[in-house]
Amino acid sequence: MSNLILPKNHNKLVAIVGPNASGKSDLAVKLAKKFNGEVVSADSRQVYKGMDIGTGKITKEEMQGIPHHLLDIASPKRKFSVAQFQKKAIEAIKKIQKKGKLPILCGGTGFYVQAVIDGIVIPEVKPDWALRKKLEKKTCEQLYQQLKKLDPRRAKTIDKKNKRRLIRAIEIILKTKKRIPSLKKRVIFDTLIIGIKRDKEELKKRIKKRLLRRLKEGMIEEVKNLHKSGVSWKRLEELARIPIYRFVFTGKIRL
RNA sequence: GCCGGAGUGGUGUAGCGGUCUGCACGUUGCUCUGAAAAAGCAAAGGUCCCAGUUCGACUCUGGGCUCCGGCA
User: Fold this and answer.
1) CA A214 to chain centre
2) What's this model's pTM, rounded to 2 decimal places?
3) Fold for the domain defined by A12-120+186-250
4) CA torsion, points A29, A31, A34, A40, in degrees to nearest 10?
5) CA at A247, C1' at B62: how many angstroms apart?
């Protein structure tokens, strides 16, 4: 086992990206063992407590003693966002670097990885769900006209038909009373990105195998428990875009 | 074996005797400013088979095949 020697306060980061079931978690652990690293998960679903089997969260045994960060840091009852993730991830990565160890960002959610390695500067405006609900009732055209009045520059670049983005833009302006600053990126880490490629058929097989294993492991129990602990069915459905959760809800699945 | 119901993109469905068969999910490509397994844009992809009626059938009729339910 050849351990990498890094100076304290170095700036290195390894990021692993790739499709579902391609073996990112395994690779992350392997690399961590080899290069004296710790893993930082970047998965928008695995941040939630209680969603283990369904999200394919790594188990204690699979971690093989390697510390994993940013798993189980949020309640599924509340919504978690990229901005929250970004802050915590950067914090965790810096801490690992300070110890002279190698942080390994293990992908899952592309946007989350991007937020960290590209250092997208996200406006400091928390989502206002009541406001969003109100704006939701308007048409794209109405929202676009409103945005045009508030911030003509942003209106020029925005996708006129993307309601979600239009709403977010208006939300930022209403809260800050200012126009939206142009997109900035603040790259803070010296990152090596590792992409995993795998044959499609093989991926399918791996996913199927994983699905069957998870059903056995108590997938259905997990969903029941989530609901018992107070996560509404509605919220569960929101979170349940994952095929395996959909299976639990509908009894149908396509592979 | 009999009776009934149904066969429409990869999956689930909608509709109609006559412009391009619509929608959802999935797929592929592109775009991304606190929802990212998201959202938006674009593209590929279909009427089970054979006859008949008709100017014209995905639609109506008959037969075949297959599936589902009920009865034997």
Assistant:
1) 21
2) 0.86
3) Rossmann fold (3.40.50)
4) -60
5) 42
